């Protein structure tokens, strides 16, 4: 990272201090900008939820008069993490899979039984855990049946949410064939019945983008993994391009399934997609557990972005056909976002460790500084939000985290390792979203009753289990 101990405010000086809402100073500021600038003894000024100025502490304090001034005491200050892909309605289901073993009950039955109240309870519990782990936003790929119920969580918890239309696909039967552990009749009955119904749902959430400063934003999501026809993909891509948003879809989760598709197509899947014009700068693929060396340059040239789910990749490493190349993709210039998918194996603050483990096991190890980028600016780029969040730059949303200065696990010899990998939730002092303090001293301070949220989430999970016959 490029260190800058003399960086100055990016705005012109004035004779009198300029008013603002907040100044944080005496911090090591990790901007995660294109130059990886680190400002020792740095500060930032915030007004109306956005970063007004960024630079050396002495300069910022001299030029701005704030309603609130925070002395960070030498702490690290970095952009908030973003979970680039999570099925948030299933957060309360993270530990139920063992209960399904030996029973004719699948995760599809769980999802088929979800009510709007269940989805809100799950998302609200996840939001509280995210904030405590230094996250300021998360992305659901279009697997929420009641988007309004989950969108309400953004204002309740003061966290950013990116979402898409519910379950866009016109070949749902493909899921039951290729991923039967995720399917059930009740679940698939809630999917579009065909192309016309899928097209009718497409773009239903884009109205959320009218408010540039809103906490909830929308993009176009296809479920993917052969559940969409070429006609649906084309319509989704056209709408994403016309609307200035990204198109996301699952691709390559099961390498064996991808290889079967390629046998039918008689060509590599990415070659086929490129030939149809389906690769481009508005496209993000999720998983990509089968990438050949000669396909990296194609993805980079087309501007495709990739969401990496480390635990999902670890599950695939022992299976035939897997070729994991996330570090190589990152180093080719492709933005990569790290994601939990469904956080069964670790808490949200364990994603950095999972990424190091998965990439090392794949023989393609990432560096800690790359993990830090993947959890911040890279994640923002995969959902098309890089102009607003993911890095600390003048004009962007003031979403940032202050870490405890006395919790330097590695004794400050590798800050990226401490921030993105081994520094857990106990290192979080404060979290700000749009300049508003959301976490203070490790506690969420948005007025939410955490005990009530947890109680409701447990009540919801028990009720779903009872409805699907998972337990009495």
From TrEMBL:
InterPro entries assigned: Amidohydro-rel (IPR006680), Metal-dep_hydrolase_composite (IPR011059), Metal_Hydrolase (IPR032466), MTA/SAH_deaminase (IPR050287)
Location of the Amidohydrolase-related domain: 78-436
Record-stated family: Belongs to the metallo-dependent hydrolases superfamily. ATZ/TRZ family.
Alphabetic keyword roster: Hydrolase
Signal peptide: none
Pfam families: Amidohydro_1 (PF01979)
Descriptive protein name: Amidohydrolase family protein
Keyword Hydrolase: yes
Organism: Chelativorans salis
Organism lineage: Bacteria, Pseudomonadati, Pseudomonadota, Alphaproteobacteria, Hyphomicrobiales
């Amino acid at each position: 990272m490029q260190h800058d101990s003399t960086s100055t405010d990016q705005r012109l000086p004035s004779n009198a201090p300029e008013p603002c809402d907040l100044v944080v100073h005496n911090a090591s500021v990790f901007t995660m900008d294109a130059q990886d600038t680190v400002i020792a003894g740095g500060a930032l000024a915030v007004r109306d939820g956005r970063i007004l100025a960024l630079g050396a502490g002495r300069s910022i304090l001299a030029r701005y008069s704030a309603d609130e001034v925070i002395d960070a005491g030498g702490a690290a200050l970095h952009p908030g993490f973003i979970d680039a892909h999570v099925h948030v309605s299933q957060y309360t289901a993270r530990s139920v899979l063992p209960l399904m073993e030996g029973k004719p009950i699948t995760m599809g039955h769980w999802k088929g039984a979800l009510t709007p109240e269940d989805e809100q309870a799950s998302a609200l519990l996840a939001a509280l855990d995210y904030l405590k782990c230094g996250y300021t936003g998360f992305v659901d790929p279009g697997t929420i049946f009641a988007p309004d119920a989950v969108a309400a969580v953004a204002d309740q918890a003061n966290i950013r949410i990116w979402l898409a239309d519910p379950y866009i696909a016109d070949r749902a039967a493909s899921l039951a064939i290729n991923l039967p552990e995720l399917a059930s009749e009740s679940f698939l009955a809630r999917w579009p019945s065909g192309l016309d119904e899928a097209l009718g749902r497409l773009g239903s959430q884009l109205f959320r983008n009218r408010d540039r400063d809103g906490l909830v934003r929308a993009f176009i999501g296809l479920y993917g993994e052969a559940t969409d026809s070429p006609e649906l993909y084309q319509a989704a891509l056209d709408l994403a391009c016309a609307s200035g948003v990204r198109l996301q879809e699952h691709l390559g989760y099961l390498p064996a399934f991808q290889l079967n598709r390629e046998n039918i197509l008689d060509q590599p899947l990415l070659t086929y997609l490129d030939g149809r014009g389906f690769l481009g700068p508005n496209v993000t693929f999720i998983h990509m557990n089968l990438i050949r060396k000669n396909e990296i340059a194609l993805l980079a040239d087309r501007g495709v972005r990739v969401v990496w789910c480390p635990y999902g990749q670890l599950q695939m490493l022992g299976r035939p056909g897997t070729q994991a190349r996330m570090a190589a993709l990152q180093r080719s210039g492709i933005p990569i976002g790290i994601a939990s998918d469904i956080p069964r194996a670790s808490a949200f603050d364990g994603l950095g460790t999972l990424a190091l483990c998965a990439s090392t096991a794949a023989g393609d190890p990432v560096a800690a500084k790359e993990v830090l980028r993947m959890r911040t600016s890279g994640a923002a780029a995969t959902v098309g939000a890089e102009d607003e969040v993911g890095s600390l730059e003048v004009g962007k949303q003031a979403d940032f985290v202050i870490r405890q200065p006395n919790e330097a696990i590695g004794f400050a010899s590798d800050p990226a390792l401490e921030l993105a990998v081994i520094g857990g939730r106990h290192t979080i002092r404060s979290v700000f979203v749009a300049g508003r303090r959301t976490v203070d001293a490790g506690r969420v301070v948005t007025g939410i009753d955490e005990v009530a949220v947890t109680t409701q989430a447990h009540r919801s999970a028990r009720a779903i289990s009872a409805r699907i016959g998972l337990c009495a």
